[in-house]
Amino acid sequence: MRKVWVVGGAAVGLGLSFVMLLVVGVYVVAGNLLGGVASAGRGLAKGAVPAAYQSLVQKWGNLCPALTPALLAAQLYQESGWNPTIVSPAGAQGIAQFIPSTWATHGIDGNGDGKRDVWDPNDAIPSAASYDCELAKYVKGTPGDVSDNMLAAYNAGAYRVIRAGGVPAIAETQDYVKRIRSLSQSFAAPVSRIDPTQQAAGAIAFAQSKLGTPYLWGGEGTAEQGGRFDCSGLTQAAYAKVGITLPRVANDQYNAGPHPSRDQLLPGDLVFFSTDRSDSRAIHHVGIYVGGGYMIDAPRTGAVIRFDPIDGADYFGATRVTADGAKALPTTV
Length: 333
Hints:
This protein is an alpha+beta fold. Helices cover 40% and strands 11% of the residues.
């Protein structure tokens, strides 16, 4: 069980509120002065890909220069939410959402068992990577970024990319490329500092205004619920207040941006806790980091929204929420 720490007394609470907002201001200003954005390598962020698929995505995501493990993970998450049995209304099948006719020509036997099974992630994930890299070869000589052109070819077809001389002026295709690129940042292991979230101060201010509010399972702060929240309802509402729409549940909120390490946390980061520290889908709790090793969270039934320490056995990781990252998340997973 995580240790808890509750602020006693209104004066202490108000003082901490003021200090926390000052801390946010300092961090945001410092981030803006330093400039730059995070660059990502070819590794995966800890736990971002379910453990059952992590080695597959890491291996096959390096199949060709145009593809990275993070791009492959973003595509799979966008297509199926890691569900290997899903069937779309259009008839796309499995974790990589292959149409049967496409699978017939591009599916491969990824695990060498003599079968090409669209329902087996050991075949479907390698097939998705192989198909991406095949498309990258088709558009190799086309002007522009090779990865963007590959993604555009996946969405619109290689011929359209070649004819357009790059990503074609098709709204759906341009949105797809931007969405996968943004979403991939939540799967990539950062290799440099991640810029602060500009809206962090407003999100924290909202959460602080709810200190002392009783917890409610499923609570989203509606009048009918007496303005009460559960953990992810609070974080969703806090970022909605500053114009960023997050998914409703904690394990989907984890994918709303890149993942700073514990020693790079800044106020406004979402911090997550999981029953399985290798799998983001096992996340069971989220709070808003406020600095000094503490978060504001709605912890459990019988408790109130309060300050709690983040360090504990079930601490999983953090997400620096970005508007583009949140927009890139699929509406259903």
